[in-house]
Amino acid sequence: MFTLVALSGCAFNTKYPPVPREQRSLSAQESYLYEIAPGDAVNIFVWAFPELSGTVPVRPDGMLTTPLIEDMPASGKTPSELARDLEEEMALYVRSPIVTVIVNNFVGLPQQQVRVVGEAMGGSGGGGSSRGPAAVPFRKHMTLLDLMIEVGGLTPFAAGNKSILVRFNDGEQVEYSVRIDDLLRKGDMSENISLLPGDILVIPEAWF
Q1: Which intervals hold domain Polysaccharide export protein N-terminal (predicted)?
Q2: Are the beta carbons of 134 and 116 closer than 8 angstroms?
Q3: In a domain, 208, yes or no
Q4: 140-158 b/e (C-beta count within 10 Å ≥ 16 → b)
Q5: End-to-end alpha carbon distance in the chain
Q6: Is residue 83 a contact partner of residue 91, using CB atoms and an 8 Å limit?
Q7: Nearest to 155 by CA among 163, 144, 165
Q8: Which pLDDT belongs to residue 170?
Q9: Do residues 101 and 15 both lie within one domain?
Q10: Which domain does 55 fall in, by range?
Q11: Are residue 114 and residue 27 in the same domain, yes or no?
């Protein structure tokens, strides 16, 4: 389990290795498929049955409700998987339903988010008007620069070059050194690492 206290206490330790530029990261990004999460808004289109179509929310328990189905598990499924499950259930009431599912609002499961803790401006959609931890839905081919733009960059008190990326490899927690100052202030694109779903970025405060 990720422990912020433990990482904060060693945030200035330079023993962490850089993020490896390995094929695993590229293949994990290429195989990424978005899974529906609680809080998502899902547009369900049933061909030839407009009365069964519409946009519904995924409840906090991961279920959704349609005009014919009171409780359908949705969380953790891809849109295509949910569409096939809806077709199977609706076939009890209508003949040969054809369903398409489109996700309109993306929240992301925790394991499919990239989270930022510490001295980032916050999850204000890139505007930087709020400050604090942020959880950003992972996007295919997402990089560190993409994440920094999403959260509005660093605060004036951040020690960006002493940041730590926490990654879980086959259930094992591994920490890597990340140099955000070099990326944002020097334009060093070699520091623009590829991110993976579930990554946690810890940005410590500078010691003056």
Answers
A1: 29-103
A2: yes
A3: no
A4: eebbbbbbbebbbebbeeb
A5: 31
A6: no
A7: 163
A8: 83
A9: no
A10: 41-105
A11: yes
What amino acid is encoded at 168 in this protein? F
Rounded CA separation 208/204 (Å) = 12
At residue 72, the 3 state secondary structure works out as strand
Whether pTM > 0.85 for this model: the answer is: no
Please provide residue 117's backbone torsions phi and psi, each rounded to the nearest 5 degrees. Answer: -125, 140
Provide the token pair at 174: 């591994």
- Asked if residue 183 and residue 124 are part of one domain, the reply reads yes
**pLDDT by residue (tens digit) across 137-182?**
999 999 999 999 999 999 999 999 999 999 998 889 999 999 999 9
Q: How far apart are CA 162 and CA 152, in angstroms?
A: 18
Both 27 and 47 in one domain: the answer is no
What residues have CB less than 8 Å from 53, skipping those under 6 apart? 44, 45, 46
Same domain, 26 and 122: yes
